[in-house]
């Protein structure tokens, strides 16, 4: 999809603070975004591990959108927890509250026409915040013309919808045979057009919704702030200096994980990627706001659990129990004050070692999935790459600064304990 160029590129406006919540995304944070001519309010997962803006039909009704422009492009996207396929269109997308909101008038957006059940949970879609490489689309112009579809566009969706994994697999095979083009992601369009500065930030306190209180959506622990086009100037959200972690590549927000320390124990080295995995994964770790756990390379996970068990065999027993039960374990068994911090050592933007600390209160989530229960939010991954998700970010106000060459930096400052007003 050729990128449009507005006639007048405005001066980037001040940072926009957007309230976010984890109750719709089952831990992943969503922001309310207005879509289309009807300004349909949709709750979209904010995900630094992907780049696509996609909305399912429901709160947003594309047939009522007078700003919708179809295209010949289609996308099929798989996540660890689901997948979808649908047409790519352009329409208006607005983020932020009245008086501070920013609008992209012709934003590329996919409509999730074919999707696996519960793909986005209770959310209405996803807003990917990574780079162009994760936002490719298939150009179906020739395919549609051969089948007499005129005009040769993908909206209305020209395929039968069954909302099944088999249908998604068939569409994936079809799309892979078509010409591929990069679609500019929403945030990239905003900063390229000069609407916002080339950075954004997260203030979060939980990786799983707290069930405490009568209304989870009103629990301040389940709310946070997304800062669009800003970061360091939001001084009420953090206390202390920033530590800067280098972004090694823009395949994702790739980082180099040097090792892990459990309490005061000996450093546990993080293995480099095998050569065959490095071709696709690029680095041995990424920072991902769309993962609500620390999803670690299995060898590293096993070493961390072994180190915890060496400190206290009860720790290993509780982890095993929590790992086997979706309902978690009784919080009363935890004695969180006895658990050590887990420290992640990464390469800084000047080549130095940067240590980030994950507190027991974030790698364990109490009052989840129900009051009086607790979930262990550290998991083994099938791949060699470790995903540093929300349990680490919950300890820090995290700024993704993409303005520095070549790939930017991720800045971490200790988060203020008082929940931010949203």
How would you characterize the overall build of this protein?
This protein is α+β, with helices and mostly antiparallel strands and 422 residues long. The chain has 2 domains: 16-196, Beta Barrel (Cathepsin D, subunit A, domain 1); 234-414, Cathepsin D, subunit A, domain 1. Helix content is 16%, strand content 36%. It has helices at 141-146, 165-176, 186-192, 275-281, 298-311, 313-324, 360-363, 390-393, and strands at 16-25, 28-35, 40-47, 53-56, 69-79, 82-95, 102-112, 114-115, 125-128, 136-139, 180-182, 199-203, 223-228, 243-246, 254-255, 257-262, 268-269, 285-287, 294-297, 329-330, 342-347, 353-358, 364-366, 373-376, 378-381, 386-388, 396-401, 409-414. It has a 6-stranded mixed beta barrel with strand order 2-3-9-4-7-6. It has a 5-stranded mixed beta sheet with strand order 15-18-26-19-25. Strand 23 (364-366) and strand 24 (373-376) form a beta hairpin. Helix 5 packs across helix 6 (313-324). The longest helix is centred in the C-terminal third of the chain and has 14 residues, at 298-311. It is globular, with a radius of gyration of 22 Å. 47% of the residues are buried. The model is unreliable at 2-9 (pLDDT under 50).
What are its keywords?
alpha+beta; Cathepsin D, subunit A, domain 1; six-stranded mixed β-barrel; 8 helices; 16% helix
CATH homologous superfamily title of the largest domain:
Acid Proteases
- Give the averaged pLDDT, no decimals: 93
Low-confidence stretches at least 5 residues in length (pLDDT < 50)? 2-9
Number of helices, counting only DSSP H or I runs of 4 residues or more: 8
Binned strand content = 35-45%
Class based on secondary structure composition and strand pairing: alpha+beta
* Number of beta strands: 28
C-alpha-based Rg, rounded: 22 Å
Order of strands, main sheet, comes to 2-3-9-4-7-6
